[in-house]
Amino acid sequence: MILIVAEKKAFAQVVAEVLNITQTKGGYWQNNQYYVTWCFGHLVELCKPATYGSQYEKWNYESLPVIPTTFQHEVIEKPEIAKKLFSIIKKLMNQKDVTEIICATDADREGELIYRRVHNMAGCNKPVKRLWVDSMENKEVEKAFQSMKPMAEYDHIYEASHCRAISDWLIGMNGSRLFSVLYAPEKISVGRVQTPTERMVVERDLQIENFIKQTYYTVTLKCAGLDAEGERIDAIEKAKEIHALTDMQDAEIISVERTEKNNNPPKLYSLSNLQGDANQYFAYTAQQTLDLVQKLYEKKLMTYPRTSSLYITSAM
Which pLDDT does position 54 carry in this prediction? Predict the structure, then answer.
C-alpha cells in the first residue's frame, strides 16, 4: 500500500478522485492500493520555551535569552481535531502494509515544512516521493504523478523553511518576553515580520498626524477651450508679479506635440495586490481575502493563491 499525505482535505479529495478512491474511513480514503489523508495545515509546531526547563515557565529578565541547543516539536493543541488527525497519519505511516509514502502537501516552502515535521514526529523512516503540483485540476494532478521525485531532492526547500521557523521562534519568544518584562504590565508581542510592519504603520500614522499644510499659488492662462496652469509658487508676491506681467497680454502657441501611447492590460493579481484592492474597495482584512481565495481555489475557480507571482503557466 502507498500512503498519500496532502496538506488540506480539499486537495486530498482531488487526489482521491484522480486515483478513483471512493472508500471513506475516519480521516482518510482508501482502495486496494492507496491510503489518502491530510494534515489540516500545521499539525506540528516548535515547542514552547517551558519545554526546555522550568526556569522558562515564568517570564523574567534573568532567564533570557531562550536559545535551545536542540529544538523540539509537539502536536498543536488547537483545534482539537489536530491531535486526532495526527494520530491517524502516524498510525497509517507506521502500518506494516504501507511500503511507500507520497508527500502531496502544497508545492512551496511551508508545505515542505508541514510534511517533514509530521513525518519526523511520527517516527517514520519509510521511502518518500514528492508530488509537486500547485493546481487543483485533475489533469495537472495526473501529470504530476508521472513526474514525482525522491523527497531528498527537496531537502534544501525544507532546510530554508526550517531556518525561517527557527528565526521566527527566537525573535518572537525572546523579543516578546523581553519587552513585556521591560514594559510590564503591558504584554508586547514581537515578531520577525510583524514588528517591522507595525513600525511602518506607526511611521505613516505619525507622518499623517504631523502633516503641515503648505499654501501655494499658481498663475493660470484661461483661453477659449484651453487652460494652461503654471507651476506652483510659494510666495504670493512672485505669483502677483507673474500675473501682472502676463495680464491681458497675447500668448502664442509655438508648438504642439501629439503622442500615441498603448496601455498594456494590467497583470494578474498576486495575493498581496488582491488583498490591497479588496481592503480598499470592500474593507476586507488580509486574512478575510486569503480565506476567500482559498475557498475559490478549492472549488477550482482560482489558481494557487499563496504566491507573489503575477503570471500563470499555459497549462493553468
Answer: 94
Residues 156-191 as b/e (b if ≥16 CB within 10 A, e otherwise) read ebbeebbeebeeebbbbbbbbbbbbeeeeeeeeebe
| Residue type at position 222 | K
Active site residue 284: no
Q: 208-230 as b/e, with b when 16 or more CB fall inside 10 Å?
A: eeeeeeeeebebeeeeeeeeeee
All residue ranges of the chain with pLDDT < 50 are none
Burial class for 239, CB neighbours closer than 10 Å (0-12, 13-18, 19+)? middle
Distance in angstroms (rounded) separating the CA atoms of residues 21 and 50: 44
Catalytic residue among 56, 115, 158, 304: 304
pTM (two decimals): 0.80
Confidence (pLDDT) at 237:
94
